[in-house]
Amino acid sequence: MSTDFYAEKLQAFLNRKAIPTSLQNKLDAQAAEVGALMSAINRHAPKEREGLAWDHIERHLDEKAASRSWPTVNELTEACKQAAAQIRSDISGMAIDTHAINAERIRNGQPVGDEWIYGRLALELIERRLTTETRLDHYRSGLFFAMREVWGEEEARRKEAEFKAKHEAAKQMNAYRGEIPKINFKRMAKE
Predict the structure, then answer these.
(1) Is 95 buried (19+), middle (13-18) or exposed (0-12) by CB count in 10 A?
(2) Which end is more exposed in the chain, N or C (fewer Cβ atoms within 10 Å of the end residue's Cβ)?
């Protein structure tokens, strides 16, 4: 998809620009130049999020253009590298909300780790109103039956007691959490 997408976008971009005077009336030279430009795109343009990447490439070319003619291979390479860096920056800046992801999995009846059923993370899901105790109880029952099938009744009960103790300890820590003052270090650094 990337090559076809970029080829269409490059062609539309070049149609808006003047053919360089050194290439006028030289169809073979024009085709070779377009091939060189596409080669630069294939080597340096991002392979993901092509639409956004092309927007960055085109904006960079337009802003840096010294004339209204086709860009050089060097100019296009620089624009592609800038776009790739911007896309990487955009992607790395995205926050992944694991709580929301696991709450969605719970709503959809998909498997989640035991830390989302018992303990601090389970309490955080409830506190953020991403799930309910009733939904978690359903998962807890399923976990118990799965453990019983694999390890037997006695081991499943022992492990369930561990999970319940972990959950109660997290509840106790949660109760104390309200008593600990929150400190805004950013504000303190400015003062």
Answers:
(1) exposed
(2) C
User: Quick one: pLDDT band at residue 191, thresholds 50, 70, 90?
Assistant: low
CA distance readout (Å), 162 to 20, 154, 158, 177, 184: 75, 13, 6, 22, 36
CB count in 10 Å sphere of residue 27: 8
CA 159, distance to chain mean position in Å, is 35
**What is the reported pTM?**
0.50
pLDDT at 1: 46
Q: 100 with 131: CB under 8 angstroms?
A: no
Biggest alpha carbon distance in the chain? 87
Instruction: Look at 36-50, 81-95, 167-181 and tell me which has the smallest mean pLDDT.
Output: 167-181
- Nearest Cα neighbor of 103 from 92, 90, 113 is 113
Q: Is 45 exposed, middle or buried (0-12, 13-18, 19+ CB in 10 A)?
A: buried
Please give the pLDDT value at position 180.
Answer: 46
How far is it, in rounded angstroms, from Cα 108 to Cα 118?
A: 18
For 55, 75, 81, 159, the CA distances from 89, given in Å and listed in that order, are 15, 21, 12, 43
Q: What is the pLDDT averaged over residues 19-25?
A: 93
Instruction: Tell me the CA end-to-end span of the chain in Å, nearest whole number.
Output: 53
